[in-house]
Specification:
By secondary structure, the chain is mostly beta strands. Helices cover 10% and strands 44% of the residues. Strand 18 and strand 19 form a beta hairpin.
Length: 237
């Protein structure tokens, strides 16, 4: 009897040693030793209509069993957006199968968004990104919208005010909305000190205001995100 038990035990031990190694924990358990991540999610995306596709990656690779994957994007100001919402109601819209699109609700305000995939309604893997309209083209002009003039053709007198209009578009060609956010992060350079003094505050019309401080000629250079433009201004005594 003892010999028989010994042989059975040896047989079971031999069978286990011949089997390929099996995963010993649920790969979708938060406590699993297997690392999962989302790839294909850009760090920053800056124009309306831009698309990207997120892919779940795991080492070792994901099993081939069917998975129920629910994709979502979370705007901290709005809340979680369900897959394929009827109207565009958030900044990043899940289109299904890991594909996302930046919506028409995008403005120049830069917002941190969480992209997530929920596997079998249990475990979530995600990544954060920053979205918002980045200025790709910038145009500066004096005068009014209906009657623009070259800034160099309209000299100022000392003490006078210059209202410098700006228009901006993102890389997709859409007009930048909420341009005051782009103004906040813009870099304004006056080539000749003492001629103009900036007095503007960021505003929704994108107007930069300067006061003529002293006689002379200077260039105003404005760099906003990926774009730069400049105008020449003359101040007379």
């Amino acid at each position: 009897m003892m010999r028989r038990l010994f042989l059975l035990a040896a047989l079971f031990a031999s069978a286990c040693s011949l089997e390929p190694p099996f995963e010993r924990s649920n790969p979708f358990d938060p406590g699993s030793p297997y690392e999962m991540r989302l790839v294909g999610v850009p760090d920053t995306l800056g124009y309306k209509g831009a698309r990207f596709t997120a892919v779940i990656e795991r080492d070792p690779p994901m099993p081939t069993v069917p998975l129920l994957v629910t994709w979502s994007a979370t705007d901290p100001r709005i809340g979680s957006i369900p897959p394929a919402p009827p109207p565009p109601s958030g900044l990043v819209l899940p289109l299904g199968a890991g594909e996302f699109m930046l919506s028409e609700a995008l403005t120049a305000e830069l917002v941190t968004t969480a992209i997530a995939a929920r596997l079998n309604s249990d475990v979530v893997v995600g990544r954060t990104m920053v979205v918002g309209q980045l200025v790709d083209t910038l145009r500066l002009a004096c005068g009014t919208v209906s009657a623009p003039v070259a800034c160099s053709a309209a000299p100022l007198s000392v003490g006078g005010t210059l209202n410098l209009r700006s228009s901006a578009r993102d890389a997709g060609g859409a007009v930048v909305q909420g341009v005051q956010f782009a103004m906040e992060r813009a870099n304004v350079i006056l080539r000749t000190p003492g001629v103009l003094t900036p007095t503007f505050t960021p505003n929704s019309s994108g107007t930069y205001t300067f006061t003529a401080a002293g006689a002379g000629t200077t260039w105003i250079v404005i760099r906003s995100d990926r774009a730069v433009d400049s105008v020449q201004v003359t101040v007379t005594p």
